[in-house]
Specification:
The complex is a heterodimer of chains A (315) and B (350).
Chain A: H1 2-17, H2 23-33, H3 35-57, H4 60-63, H5 90-126, H6 128-143, H7 146-157, E1 164-166, E2 169-171, H8 174-183, H9 188-201, H10 205-212, H11 217-225, H12 230-253, H13 265-268, H14 281-308
Antiparallel strand pairs in A: 1-2
Helix pairs in contact in A: 2-14, 3-5, 3-14, 5-6, 5-8, 5-9, 5-12, 5-14, 7-8, 9-12, 10-11, 12-14
Chain B: H1 2-28, H2 45-54, H3 61-70, H4 116-151, H5 156-170, H6 173-190, H7 210-244, H8 247-254, H9 259-271, H10 273-287, H11 291-296, H12 302-311, H13 315-343
Helix pairs in contact in B: 1-13, 4-5, 4-7, 4-13, 5-7, 6-7, 7-9, 8-9, 10-13, 12-13
Classes of the chains: A mainly alpha (315), B mainly alpha (350).
Chain lengths: 315, 350
């Protein structure tokens, strides 16, 4: 009897003295238990190590080095992934291409986040005619098949942005073009999610309280409502990165994406169609890398969805 | 209901207006349509100027938009560029010939000089054949797989399906399509097995026939289906798991109905209902075709038409295709909502 109550008070002691876990720690705890999500995270880390670490092994000059004497060679010891139609090493190109593909995925989502959160927040918070106009615009964007709009926008911007230098390397201006058009073509669902969050949150008492103390509309949006709707935004943005990488691959495959010699996983697939029978390594390796990356991000996104759900069991 | 439909159709007008403006601005300015106008011949600069005036490309953007919208048969033409309206040999003023999209004239292609309506009518059946075949297969397979994995939740089968559906919707289309071609066309040929064609709708030597088309349909349909089955079957599984926990299912079981009847009549009917929405919203985009798949398999559909004419800056064709799709999206959304309220009487629009 005495031991039981002692044990009980010990437990009470522990719960009372221990620091409560922050929401982020709770989420991480749930995320860790999600096997597929942890697998996805591991895979993603490996892929990042591959594209970043690889650039210490091969120089960018080597990845872009044209040698038509060794074009379309099958995988061998000298070129483990084979060579492409102008004799460039596919292994080295897949490393530098991966950097650009991942960069495009991330940056496009940042653009989409900026547009989607702004439009969704304004629309949900102010309502009225602002809401009507913004939501009509969102609907209009959703009525156009995504790839069609991207093709037209890619053609429109085409070579309007010049090449630029960054990190001591030269980047094709088309990288920026692709980031912008994918970003501005994938904010619509985000805007709708943010809007619906704002619609319900703005009626809550803490918003009324903030308004009573004279907080400005902008501060209420940015500091009171937005932090409360961050969970669905994070999940959507994560899955958005996967989508952006796939979309880049499609536009580049069609030849409207990032220009050569800058490699991306997408434009490495571009000429693969022509050498279908003779050189399967042209499309196999970049295709596989895209698949693995998108798969890993989708796993992580799925895990985040479960981990960030406030209704999920708190243990 | 009637008032609801009318209101929705009225709301569609500003929507279509916004879409047309966005795309018009992008597609008119995206390149030089005259660059490929003369085919392989180079156009003389005088001819180029005359053509520019004839096509109205010298006009400001908003005038071009109005002409595209309502036509130019009320405007005088100035093709010779002398600043005065043209007159024909009888001394009559010459007017434009275009009627505008509002009167059903989608214009004429810069590349083929064919009416856009004709070009779309030529391609649409091919796309419909490809996409509807795929959609039917997707629906049947997704229903079967989704149902099976919901009934055997957390079984090995369910886990396998989950894993494959993740791979399915993470799959880049080129990898899947080229992989299928490589195995079933290239390798099967090497092994002396009956192999599938790599592209097109028929063998040029055999000529077009329905057997040829069916044979050429197999690989593209497989590629499109495999990717979409993943998402659809997850959806069926989720909605089936939700339905199976409802009270009316317990009631059906409690009154001693056969399990098969409970699953197929009581549960499946309700679980499949949300699919109506998904299919209804997907349909117009199916008409748009799958640009990447059609390109890989050299399938002469709408997606290819759109892509080919974008690369040549042929904006009447692009605008025609996109506006038709946009109208269909609006119409199908309405049909979906009406059908849904018919299938599920709990939903009312007033």
């Amino acid at each position: 009897m005495a031991t039981a109550s002692e044990a009980l008070s010990a437990i009470h002691e522990e719960t009372l003295t221990k620091q409560p876990l922050t929401p982020a720690q709770l989420a991480w705890r749930r995320f860790r238990r999600h096997k597929m999500a942890m697998f996805g995270l591991l895979l993603l880390i490996l892929l990042i190590v591959y594209v970043v670490g690889g650039s210490f092994v091969f120089a960018e000059k080597y990845a872009n080095f044209v040698n038509t004497g060794i074009k379309l060679q099958a995988p061998s010891q000298a070129h483990p992934f084979g060579t492409d139609a102008v004799g460039r090493d596919i292994l080295a190109r897949s490393i530098y291409g991966g950097q650009i593909s991942l960069l495009i995925g991330l940056a496009a989502v940042i653009v989409a986040l900026a547009a989607g959160v702004t439009i969704g927040a304004l629309s949900g918070y102010y309502g009225g005619w602002i809401d009507s106009i913004l939501m009509r615009f969102t609907e209009a964007m959703l009525c156009i098949p995504q790839l069609f709009l991207l093709i037209v926008a890619a053609k429109y911007l085409g070579d309007k942005i010049h090449n630029f230098q960054a990190f001591g390397r030269e980047f094709s201006g088309s990288v920026i073009v692709i980031i912008l058009i994918i970003g501005f073509d994938s904010w619509m669902y985000l805007a709708r999610i943010v809007r619906s969050q704002f619609l319900s949150l703005k009626e809550q008492e803490f918003v009324t309280a903030a308004r009573c103390t004279g907080t400005s509309n902008l501060a209420i949006i940015a500091y009171h409502i937005l932090p409360n709707s961050v969970a669905p935004i994070i999940v959507n943005a994560t899955l958005g990165v996967a989508n952006a990488i796939l979309t880049e691959a499609y536009i580049s495959f069609l030849g409207l994406g990032v220009r050569q010699p800058t490699a991306t996983w997408g434009n490495m697939l571009e000429s693969a169609n022509r050498y279908l029978e003779t050189a399967p390594w042209l499309w196999f390796f970049p295709g596989l890398l895209i698949l693995l990356t998108v798969l890993a991000i989708n796993f992580v996104g799925d895990g985040l969805r479960d981990a960030l759900d406030p209704r999920a069991m708190v243990e | 209901m009637g008032r609801y439909i009318v209101r929705r159709l009225l709301q569609a007008i500003p929507l279509l207006f916004i879409i047309s403006v966005i795309l018009f601005v992008l597609s008119v300015e995206m390149g030089d349509p005259l660059a490929t106008f003369g085919g392989r011949q180079v156009i003389k600069s005088e001819d180029r100027k005359r053509l520019t005036r004839q096509l109205g490309l010298d006009k400001p953007l908003y005038v071009q938009y109005i002409v595209w919208l309502v036509g130019n048969d009320w405007m005088t033409m100035d093709v010779n560029g002398d600043g005065k309206p043209d007159v024909d040999e009888n001394g009559q003023l010459v007017y434009g010939t275009r009627k505008g999209i509002l009167r059903g004239d989608l214009g004429t292609s810069f590349v083929t000089k064919q009416p856009v309506t004709e070009m779309i009518a030529e391609r649409l059946p091919n796309t419909l054949l490809l996409m509807i075949t795929s959609e039917v297969i997707i629906l049947i397979v997704a229903l079967v797989i989704g149902l099976a994995s919901a009934l055997k939740q957390y079984s090995i089968f369910d886990h396998t399906v989950t894993a494959f559906s993740f791979i399915g919707y993470s799959m880049p289309i080129p990898l899947l399509a080229l992989g299928l071609i490589y195995i079933f066309a290239v390798y099967f040929k090497r092994w002396g097995l009956p192999y599938f064609p790599t592209g097109g709708m028929f063998d040029p030597q055999a000529g077009p026939s329905w057997q040829q088309t069916a044979w050429h349909l197999v690989l593209p349909v497989t590629a499109i289906s495999l990717i979409s089955i993943a998402g659809y079957s997850r959806y069926v599984r989720g909605s089936m798991l939700e339905v199976i926990q409802q009270d009316y299912i317990r009631t059906a079981r409690a009154k001693g109905l056969a399990e098969r009847r409970v699953v197929f009549i009581h549960a499946l009917k309700n679980a499949a209902l949300p699919l109506v929405t998904i299919v209804g919203l997907d349909l117009p985009f199916l008409l748009a075709g799958a640009v990447v798949t059609e390109t890989i398999f050299a399938w002469p559909g709408m997606g290819r038409l759109f892509y080919d004419h974008t690369t040549r800056s042929d904006f009447p064709v692009l605008m025609g295709i996109i506006m038709i799709i946009a109208v269909l999206v609006v119409v199908f959304q309405l049909i979906t909502d009406v059908t849904y309220s018919f299938l599920d009487p709990r939903i009312r629009y007033d």
